[in-house]
């Protein structure tokens, strides 16, 4: 196996550090580098200060083989990346005639005048390899120093992505002898990260050296990402699948999908398979459950509708929840969740219906029912299944978690019905 080629991604711009824009470039670049066998090991964000940028370059050069830099290539005074590269490499700016011709053509095609600032975008460090940008005015640049490749790209996402796809990735593949980096993801739900780790510890300890495991928790789910490195694609795929086949029987009740599967897509496939339909009755989730179910194209085949009944009046009027139930047990109760789900199934005329009722927070709790107390229910033609959730005191987290747990309750209910049919 070849030595692993390592990369660092450096984003430049005060606007990123100030939180004025979201850095989506790093995530995309990381995925693309991994796809060709280069392992990203660090990402760094630096403001528009020359000394800090040079320090970031110097530190990165000690630990990686490739440094991808985005941002700071615009025509204004705060865009200092080119000048910083000149200082770092001991070079000077020189007008690049090929770049100038491309910038001139760019403005001519659009019928726009070209200012002196625009012209200066074609001035590049005299020791860089010019990378033409057919999608904007800021050229890309390629440098090499002490065995490290430095790539400078514009920060505008569509320009950066086009340069990476058509110019940089092919050049990196030609420059380095690369391994294959392959991921296999097992998606679990209903078990915490620490419990999961304890359960599969013997299997994890026995993993071969070239396969690594990462735990990626997110709102009630834990993704188990296996990353294999090798030089033979077919062999690596086989080895990863072998490890998945050893893992899954140990945690089968918690596994809902693999790789790009999402909980809602798995549920959609199950509903479609059985020609079943679904509706929702939501209180504390405020429609978020319906949004998740309808986020997929084709969801109209199985999703009928939703009743968002925030008030007790609408719980009674639209879903048929009994006034006595609300007075005796309260809106946040197993009984109310049950009647909401059963009412929704009748009103929406669906095979299944799921309901949510709870105290999302940050206020509204009592000693008996603190913030984070939630009941969910799933009604079928033959039974209604309920579940009590005891969540956090943070509203948005509670809404996300309730939705995820409700979807999982639906998934398990469908699978149970599937087994009973056999």
TrEMBL record:
SMART domains: MoCF_biosynth
Domain MoaB/Mog: 8-175
Recorded family membership: Belongs to the CinA family.
Protein name: CinA-like protein
């Amino acid at each position: 196996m070849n030595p692993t080629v390592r990369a660092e991604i450096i984003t430049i711009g005060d606007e990123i550090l100030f939180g004025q824009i979201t850095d989506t470039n790093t995530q995309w670049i990381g995925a693309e580098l991994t796809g060709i066998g280069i392992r990203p090991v660090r990402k760094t964000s630096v403001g528009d200060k020359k000394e800090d940028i040079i320090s970031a370059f110097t530190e990165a050069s000690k630990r990686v083989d490739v440094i991808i830099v985005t941002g700071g290539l615009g025509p204004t005074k705060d865009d200092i990346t080119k000048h910083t590269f000149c200082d770092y490499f001991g070079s000077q700016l020189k007008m690049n005639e090929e770049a100038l011709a491309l910038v001139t053509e760019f403005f001519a095609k659009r019928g726009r005048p070209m200012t002196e600032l625009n012209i200066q975008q074609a001035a590049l460090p005299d020791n860089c390899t010019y990378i033409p940008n057919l999608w904007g005015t800021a050229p890309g640049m390629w440098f090499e120093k002490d065995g490290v490749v430095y790539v400078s790209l514009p920060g505008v996402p569509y320009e950066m992505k086009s340069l990476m796809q058509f110019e940089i990735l092919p050049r990196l593949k030609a420059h380095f002898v690369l391994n294959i980096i392959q991921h296999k993801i097992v998606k679990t739900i209903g078990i915490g990260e620490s419990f999961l780790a304890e359960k599969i510890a013997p299997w994890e300890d026995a993993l071969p050296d070239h396969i690594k495991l990462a735990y990626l928790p997110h709102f009630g789910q834990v993704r188990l990402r296996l990353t294999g490195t090798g030089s033979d694609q077919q062999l690596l795929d086989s080895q990863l699948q072998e490890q998945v086949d050893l893992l899954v029987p140990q945690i089968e009740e918690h596994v809902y999908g693999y790789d790009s599967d999402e909980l809602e897509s798995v549920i959609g496939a199950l509903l479609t398979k059985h020609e079943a339909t679904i509706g929702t009755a939501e209180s504390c989730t405020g429609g978020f459950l319906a949004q998740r179910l309808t986020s997929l194209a084709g969801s109209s085949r199985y999703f009928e509708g939703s009743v968002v009944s925030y008030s007790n009046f609408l719980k009674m009027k639209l879903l048929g929840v009994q006034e006595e139930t609300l007075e005796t047990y309260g809106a946040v109760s197993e009984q109310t969740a049950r009647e909401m789900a059963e009412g929704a199934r009748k009103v929406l005329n669906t095979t299944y219906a799921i309901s949510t009722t709870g105290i999302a927070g940050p206020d509204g709790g009592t000693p008996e029912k603190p913030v984070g107390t939630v009941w969910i229910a799933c009604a079928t033609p033959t039974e209604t299944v309920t579940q009590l959730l005891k969540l956090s005191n943070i509203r948005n987290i509670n809404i996300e978690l309730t939705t995820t747990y409700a979807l999982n309750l639906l998934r398990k209910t469908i699978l149970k019905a599937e087994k009973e049919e056999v």
